[in-house]
Amino acid sequence: MTSIVDSGVDDRGPATQSNVEAGPWAEGGAARNPGMALELDWLREVRVNRSAVERRAATIPARRSVKKDWQAAWLLKAITCIDLTTLSGDDTPGRVRRLCAKGRLPVRRDVLEALGAQNLGLHVGAICVYHAMLPAALEALEGSGIPVAAVSAGFPAGLSPLEERVREVEASVAAGAQEIDIVIQRGHVLTGDWQALYDEVRAFRAACGEAHLKTIIATGDLAILRNTAKASLVCMMAGADFIKTSTGKEAVNATLPVSLVMVRAIRTYRERTGIRIGFKAAGGISTAKDALDYLTLMKEELGRPWLEPGLFRIGASSLLGDIERQLEHHVTGRYSASRRHPMG
Predict the structure, then answer these.
(1) Distance, C-alpha 31 to centroid of its chain
(2) Which pick of 43, 204, 269, 328 has the fewest CB atoms within 10 Å?
């Protein structure tokens, strides 16, 4: 039988250094996922040992650490993997333009110069907004190489009619979004209707065309870790290029245990198909230490290719400010006030 997580032990060594150059989708091995036929027998074999998952997840922040120059390098790498996000009801074009400006220059120039990183062309992995904010984001990012992601498919509940959700995806792609973050209908998972989930994600994949598809499985609503593992596999079978933890609107969002289950599902899928799937952690990741924990998870569980924005993203809004503060502390030895690192 297939076990997504059958042991709490992992003896592979820690990452030692990081390349901070961000690149396009293909630069990190992120070829499109063509998907495959739904294999219900595979899902029936899935087992998740919750206690082993929790033991292994607890070792990530406790057992691994990087210090001094290495930590600064890892934090610069983390910036390249951030989906800098604003998904508020009071979003305005002005707020989005400020966010995009921060995405283009995520760390103050004086800090970059002190780090010797001023010539790296550092920028975030993507800017993530609602469909209505796409024109402002696309205009602000023109020529930057930073993709724009649009949340779609009835975000965050995913309960509007399927036809409407598909049209919403098509509209965002037509408007210029290079990435689409869709949310699944959680009821399909909770009732075990895997065919319905597969067909839904397959329809979104077709509607995306050349845009990359990130499927949000909203782990906080799925009750048990086995549901998380199965939903991850079905979304990958249906053609998702990324699987993503959360909308950021659930009571519980990204956690290391659910992320571990999802990345091991990615590993299992690659072993069976040869296709690399990306992972996005979103919701509640707000400190530089959190970012380091997730980079460590990706390096230890999936390997070096998953430290690139083509295969790993962190959906966040406040995280970048804390990373910038930590980098300034590395340079000066003092912690600055948050107001010295505004979002725009």
Answers:
(1) 16
(2) 43
pLDDT in tens, 79-117: 999 999 999 999 999 999 999 999 999 999 999 999 999
- Is the previous residue joined to 257 through a cis bond, with omega within 30 degrees of 0? no
Q: Which of 127, 143, 152 is nearest to 309 (CA)?
A: 127
The CATH classification of domain 37-340, taken from the options 3.30.70.20, 3.20.20.70, 3.90.550.10, 3.30.70.270: 3.20.20.70
Task: Tell me which amino acid residue 147 is.
Answer: P
Alpha helix stretches (DSSP H) within the chain: 40-44, 50-63, 68-80, 93-104, 109-115, 134-140, 162-175, 186-190, 194-208, 225-237, 256-273, 288-301, 319-332
Q: What does each C-alpha distance from 59 to 11, 52, 226, 293 come to in angstroms?
A: 11, 11, 21, 10
- Residue 181 phi/psi, 5° resolution? -100, 105
230 is catalytic: no
181 is catalytic: yes
Other C-beta atoms closer than 10 Å to the C-beta of 305 total 16
Non-local CB neighbours of 102 within 8 Å, separated by 6+ positions: 84, 124, 320, 342, 343, 344
Enter the pTM of the model.
0.91
pLDDT of residue 63: 67
Q: Domain locations in the chain? A: 37-340
Rounded Cα–Cα distance for residues 137 and 175 (Å): 11
Rounded distance between C-alpha atoms, residue 235 and residue 217, angstroms = 9
Which residue among the candidates 77, 83, 102, 181 is catalytic per the annotation?
A: 181
Half-sphere exposure of 5 (CA within 13 A, CB side): 27
Q: What is the pLDDT of residues 182-222, one digit of tens each?
A: 999 999 999 999 999 999 999 999 999 999 999 999 999 99
